[in-house]
Amino acid sequence: MAGVASHAFGSRAHAARFERNPAAREPAAVKWIIITVSMLFFASFLLLPLYAVFSEALRKGWQAYWEALVEPDAVASMRLTLLAAAIAVPLNLVFGIAAAWAIAKHDFRGKHVLVTLIDLPFSVSPVIAGLVYILVFGAQGWFGPWLSEHDIKIVFAVPGIILATIFVTVPFVARELIPLMEAQGREEEEAALVLGATGWQTFFRVTLPNIKWGLLYGVILCNARAMGEFGAVSVVSGHIRGQTNTMPLQVEILYNEYNFAAAFAVASLLALLALVTLVIKTVIEWRLGREPHPIGAP
Amino acid sequence: MSIRVENIQRSFGAFKALDGVTLDFPTGELVALLGPSGCGKTTLLRIIAGLDFADSGRILLDGEDASSTHVRERKVGFVFQHYALFRHMTVFENVAFGLRVKRKGRPLDKVIRAKVTELLKLVQLDWLADRYPAQLSGGQRQRIALARALAVGPSVLLLDEPFGALDAKVRKELRRWLRRLHDELHITSIFVTHDQEEALELADRVVVMNRGKVEQVGAAEDVYSNPATPFVYEFLGAVNEFRGNVVGEGLQVGTDVIPQVGRGYGNGQQVVGFARPHELDIVVDHANTNVGVPARVNRILSFGPVARIELSRLNGGGETTEQQFEVQLPAQRLAELQLTTGQAVRLLSSRLRLFDQGSVK
Ligand SMILES: Nc1ncnc2c1ncn2[C@@H]1O[C@H](COP(=O)(O)OP(=O)(O)OP(=O)(O)O)[C@@H](O)[C@H]1O
Ligand SMILES: [Mg+2]
Q1: For atom 22 of ligand 1, which residue has the closest CA?
Q2: Which pTM does this prediction carry?
Q3: Where are the alpha helices (DSSP H) in chain B?
Q4: Measured between alpha carbons, how far is A267 from A246 in angstroms, rounded to an integer?
């Protein structure tokens, strides 16, 4: 996922150059076959389901759709999903910038360990992440007795959901920023320092503006994942209706109860979120492509 | 501000980037740091600016130890090897940056505007104020980087290969321009380059470095005509090399002799003699002499008032060897000699500089 934004533009320009060059061009037939096949593939595997979600959600009409959305348990699940994202995303924003800064612009022992740790949530199944939280904070877990003594609930409660969400979203911001910051090097920051800027001034006036689009890109991907996560959250949730169900969990419960229209109604919101994310992502990629190129590189 | 660098050591792992460098930069001088790639020039500048640290040794700014002075407080203007302009800011904002981040006594917006405009006029680029760095040519970026460094009123200007990536013509223009600027502002300036011509033309004094050490310091003219070490001699221009031993007043090379004044070296001592192309003369070979080093003419380049002749050394048997010579003669002298390509001749030197063979790699 990392670096997608930064590569998108360069390859586009490259492709155009390749395409306009008769010496490098493939026969038109080959090109159109490849394009048609991939279009058909993505239409059937991606667009069709999306269409199915909305048509299923609206099968019983707008009235039923609306009622399914304002049903108290559904509203509670939306609230919880928003809460988890509202906590996980800003935390990742701060952590991601700090980690990327440390990794890209400084040398220290344990740098590789930190990079590996950041990638851990990508390489570990979310279910395992959830189970780890149960092992640590659950009633039979390491801190279980202490927690229950102090009347603190983590698993099968909102804190557990938030923790699990944070866990699965950790890589997004940092992974997006590290290659970007590494490519930019330290010279601009050093120039700011020599010109008398403090660390904060350097960060807000030089570093941040240089990474802002990459950062935004990381944040929306992070947000999409935070709201859509199922596995890890499912394990720590306990599925208490109206309390510990996020939207994806709510969809599953409704579906298992054969309440298809309601299930798809909630699911349609998630699909909508995905669409909005895609639009923002496209806009950002377009902006990233228009950014002035790195200068002065020899 | 005067700068004194005292016995600076800096290693990267086992590699010694700077090895006991001691230098003085008096107030108001323009000094060139000259040396081959990787000899530690950038490292030295960064240590003076405070962007890097020395493993041992001291930096004295105006006689005071600067080791505890933060980069921010050193009043240094730094022009980076690759300019390091702020890519998301316009040219104007780049130059204004140093004024905008001032915490004590930040000037009013009006004052900043006036000051930046003045600086942009100084570097003759006020018409580019609204452009972004990516929209500038290399030479324009260079001048903006300089204007940005000057904006904070530095007491020292450190320029790291400012003309590195530019073509010869622009280089020359900027060189003159920088010299004029220095004559106007009189800021102590250190200027890094690995172009000897640039250093010799621009600087009051030249510091020649090699492998983390200072080889020679002196006025440009002095360093050029009296190189202290073989390295400096070879680095500062084309050079012809003669290995042999001292015989009386001459230098014996193989079975041949270059008669010259071999002062300071005892009979039989193994030495290397260096001569610049213009310090060699060509005599047409007469078989029955051993005066001068035999060589064969490969190429004659005669345009303009000075002719260049490229030759290969001949060994005792009259066969050409790998060793090449280059001679510069006035066109008139060339006409007298009536040289032709392939002709065997002998080389003499009016002015050979001798070094111990042990000091030459
Ligand atoms: N951060 C670093 N880590 C390891 N080695 C370094 C580092 N910085 C510099 N060096 C080494 O130190 C030596 C001196 O580097 P420096 O950048 O000062 O050279 P320079 O004289 O400026 O060369 P150039 O003319 O090519 O810019 C080089 O051999 C370089 O490889
Ligand atoms: Mg350098």
Answers
A1: B42
A2: 0.79
A3: 41-49, 91-100, 109-122, 138-151, 168-185, 196-202, 220-225, 230-235, 331-337
A4: 11
Ligand 1 pocket test: which of B21, B43, B163, B195 has the largest number of ligand atoms within 8 Å of its C-beta? Answer: B43
Q: pLDDT of B130-178, one tens digit each?
A: 999 999 988 889 889 989 999 988 999 999 988 776 677 777 877 888 8
**Domains of chain B with CATH codes:** 3-235 (3.40.50.300), 240-359 (2.40.50.100)
A195:B88 CB<8 A:
no
**Residue A277, CA distances (Å) to A5, A69, A219 in order:** 14, 21, 10
For CA atoms B139, B140, B143, B149, the dihedral sign is negative
Q: Which residues on adjacent β-strands are paired with residue B355?
A: B272
Q: What is the pLDDT of residues A71-130, one digit of tens each?
A: 899 899 999 999 999 999 999 999 999 999 988 888 888 888 988 888 888 888 888 888
**DSSP of B100-122:** HT-SSSPPPHHHHHHHHHHHHHH
Type of residue found at A67: E
CA distance B225 to A222: 66
- What is the number of other CB atoms lying within 10 angstroms of the CB of residue B348? 18
Per-residue pLDDT at A243 exceeds 60 = yes
B interface residues, A as partner, C-beta within 8 Å: 49, 51, 71-72, 76-78, 80, 82-89, 97-98, 100-103, 132-135, 141, 148-149, 151-152, 164-165
Q: Give the model confidence (pLDDT) of B331-356 as tens digits.
A: 888 888 888 888 888 888 877 888 88
Mean pLDDT of A210-237: 90
Ligand 1 atom nearest to B13, measured from its CA? 4
DSSP for B105-166 reads: SPPPHHHHHHHHHHHHHHTT-GGGTTS-GGGS-HHHHHHHHHHHHHHT--SEEEEESTTTTS
